[in-house]
What does this fold into?
Amino acid sequence: MQTFYYVHTGHRIGLDRFRRAAAILKSLEDIEVTLLCSDFRIAQVAHEYGVKNAVGVDVVRNIPQISHHGDKLIFDSDEANPIMLEDMRSYFSTFIHIKNDEIAIDNIYFEETKKTIKITYFFGDDDYEKDLEKNLSILDGLDCNLQLGFYYFLDYEDMLTAKFPNYFEFEEYQEMILKTKILITSSPQAVLESLASQGKPIYLQRKDYTTDYNQLFESLNIPIIENFDKEKLTSVLKTIDKHNYLKIDEKSNKITEIIRNNLRL
It folds into this structure.
């Protein structure tokens, strides 16, 4: 009997779920789990995130080609319809469905680090429609660093880096999060990681991203900007030093214990 963790990731949805999956798997390092990625490219570099075993499966319907009846599956995706979910529950001896707004943050982000970078903009790991470029005016007047994403096109990266005084390569993401004081981002996972590292995140709600995190962000008093509203962003930045963010700590990673307990059943 094997245990698998399927995560939906790719050039149209980014790496938020993958970053969360990597954090969960690091917390379950005493349990042998194989990560199944819907994107072969990220599966090839998953070991750089502490993932011991990773396999690309392309699409969710390929999971049975890797697994066997009676195996265990952690399912981190919204791809499946109710019928498919029911089939999975029948096929696997243990089936755990992770919701969008579940929190899991790598412990590295809870380490105290000096904030030497004033402000960074991270649109997300995916920008297939080049929406970052279309909405650059929201950053006018800000001396802002840029964090590049994983699924950007080479020519797109060249154009973007020419517009920013400083930028971070994809591989510098973790260091950027730890050292950045103010993070403007459309990545829900980056918001949580920034808050954990005592940064001051501002969430830009993308039209193509779920709003499932917004209630959680509101409960943590994280500013949410919709429609790339420049005026609202300016207002938030003017008072951000006095803004009362609620603290998030390592005890927030409750999903890990829930998974561990279910795998033991």
